[in-house]
Amino acid sequence: MTQPLLSVKNLTIDYIGEEKDFRAVDNVSFDVAPGEVFGLAGESGCGKSTIAFAISRLHKPPALIRKDSQILLAGRDVLDLDPKALSAFRWREVAMVFQSAMNSLNPVLRIEDQFYDVLRTHKGMTKAQARERTAEMLRLVDIAPDRMRNYPHQFSGGMRQRIVIAICMALDPQLVVMDEPTTALDVVVQREILQRINELRKQFGFSVLFITHDLGLMVQFCDRIGIMLQGKLVEQNSAEAIYKVPQHEYTRKLWASFPSLHGGVLL
Ligand SMILES: Nc1ncnc2c1ncn2[C@@H]1O[C@H](COP(=O)(O)OP(=O)(O)OP(=O)(O)O)[C@@H](O)[C@H]1O
Ligand SMILES: [Mg+2]
Fold it and tell me: Residue 134 C-alpha to ligand 2 middle, in angstroms?
């Protein structure tokens, strides 16, 4: 692999309990190359979101990242960032889209003002510059620029999700972390949004860490996939190999439990 953009090394995260601690992530290591889509799959509670939060430095107590864990982004350890560096890092370098992202828009602000907030804070743009950038970003996600004057409730769920993605892209992040980004949407809208993200990725070259319960979607959308079981990364390989020649027994079980909507042909 070329020099990875993201390199997670020996990541161990405990949730500190009153009586005993719970190891949610156990010595996990993986790399994501520039422009690559890496997927994390595994049953509910295996630690996927805990990893996503740690990479975005959004983890909070009782989560505790153990010593010797490293999260390197373009060679810099994300876990060592001080508060000032962290605020720049949070939008400009890593953007995060959650399942409930469409509800993260502020209901009382016009879309253009939500873009302006981000663009002024992180890029020092004037209102006119921000408006121009907003129009450009909305066009990228197939939303007519003149709708920037609207409020969030005037859009459908899928459109709101696309607006959140457009805001994330507005700062040209190097890495986009997506934790169940489209699970709340219907299947058609979900695929449209993922296709759009894929096109944007090809155009701008960012990497994606993609988490979903939908293994079929994951195989189609990801270059490589890591399979997690109870906090451990038990297998990682190309999407095709994970699907066609799964090595770990648990990966085979995951596939067996996943009802194929495509008559068994996913690729
Ligand atoms: N704030 C917390 N306090 C204590 N334990 C937690 C906390 N958040 C998560 N956990 C535990 O850590 C483990 C991993 O949780 P995580 O949310 O990372 O799972 P996940 O793989 O994202 O699951 P899902 O697919 O359901 O979203 C779970 O067993 C969960 O109960
Ligand atoms: Mg989760």
Answer: 30
